[in-house]
Amino acid sequence: MRNHNRREFIEASVGAATAFSAACMAPATAASVAAAVSANERIVVGVMGIGGRGAGLATMFAARADVHVAWLCDPDSRRAAYATKVVEQAQGRPAQFHQDFRRMLDDRSVDAIVNATPDHWHALGSILACQAGKHVFVEKPMAYDIWEGRKMIDAARKYNRVVTVGMQSRSSPYAAAAREFVRSGKLGEIRLVRVYNLMKHSRQKLGSPQPPPEGFDYDLWCGPAAKLPYIPGRHWLNTAEFSCGPIPGDAVHQLDLARFVLGDPPAPKSVNHTGGIYVLQDGRDTPDTQYATYEYDNFTLLFQGALWMPYMKKIATKIREEDLFPDWQFCATKIELLGTEGFMYLGRHGGGWQVFDADNKLVEQCYGRPGDKFHIENFIQCIRSGQRPNADVEQGHQSVLLCHLANIAWRMGNARLKFDPASETFPQSPDANRLLKRPQYRAPWIVPEKV
């Protein structure tokens, strides 16, 4: 299917309902950012982790008139020059840099932190921030394992903090319109959902173990994880000690968006997995191929993830930012909702959605836009109001839980496992239950039993 522009859609669908199309461009929140605010109305923000995503988020927060980014923290001081530069350019004044994020938590003027660290720091960094009285914007995947995710929820609720997860499609108007379309019943009864994360990753090229570079506090970077030898070329995302894996780290966006438009169903009652390290045998210990089936009470979710498919393409920036749709056949990050009356294609990060009827006729569609600005707006407004954010920590946990279930089933030998959503355990598999939690933390970076 080729891209459709606005004129082609109007010509092809005269007489279609317009309510959903109008909702596509509606603001995600009622409040909007004022052109100028007083200094004491500004939300003071610190950023933990200033790699590519962290520096990008720091810049987006700094660009707001109602935010002051006061701190930038990262164990790797080599990142400081670029991040401090772009933040100062965005907000017109500098931010402090420190390798140790605890300095930022000690600053009582800080209202909120952005946690854009690798997966193994998401839980402890966020819990410590809640204990210090800070609100948290934590990147996806929310937690390294199922147990840590539940502890993050406990911390948010105990300390009454707003904790939102970087699953920004939830705040996009087009996603809200998709949810309303599904709720309208026009797709009929949805019995099958297919979620994809198929693309091409490069092989990592491992060097020999050596001392960490000057300016990089590797001990702090490892934090609660084991302090593995420092090996140039080893990507943390491919290393199970630090990461949920590259497929879950990306696919959680689509899994979350699918859950969102379906009305946020609770966890499935079983998972079945097949996959492994089939192509990228480059020293990684996380799968390059993951296919999972999740059984719910009223529908089945099929997930396909792989890292060796060059013909599958992520949604291009031009498509995300204009009135265009991806080539669904080769879209790497699509969702398909199959109902008894209609079929929906849905794309993340501004990919939009299209619906086809029983005669394969295009009957409704909605262009998308990226959700970052909407998502940050929602976080800031929830800090002010105390309301739960669009990507509340509970929903972040429920979405990444699907990734954890697939990983555990893989580590159990590509097993089929029954799951109890209430206890978040595997009632028939003690061995699988041992994989719910990191077996050992490295002192002093220990996630507490009671937060």
Write the layout of secondary structure elements.
Layout: H1 6-12, H2 19-24, E1 43-48, H3 52-62, E2 67-73, H4 80-91, E3 96-98, H5 102-106, E4 112-115, H6 122-131, E5 135-138, H7 146-158, E6 163-165, H8 173-184, E7 190-198, H9 218-222, H10 246-261, E8 270-276, E9 289-295, E10 300-306, H11 317-321, E11 334-339, E12 343-347, E13 352-356, E14 362-366, H12 372-385, H13 393-411, E15 416-418, H14 430-433
Parallel strand pairs: 1-2, 1-4, 2-3, 4-5, 5-6, 7-10
Antiparallel strand pairs: 7-11, 8-9, 8-15, 9-10, 11-12, 12-13, 13-14
Helix pairs in contact: 3-4, 6-7, 7-13, 10-13
How would you characterize the overall build of this protein?
The chain folds into two domains: 6-26 and 170-207 and 216-370, Dihydrodipicolinate Reductase, domain 2; 39-169 and 374-391, 3-Layer(aba) Sandwich (Rossmann fold), CATH 3.40.50. 31% of the residues lie in helices and 18% in strands. The protein has 14 helices and 15 strands. Helix 7 (146-158) links the parallel strand 5 (135-138) and strand 6 (163-165). It is globular, with a radius of gyration of 22 Å. Residues 1-18 and 28-36 have low confidence and may be disordered.
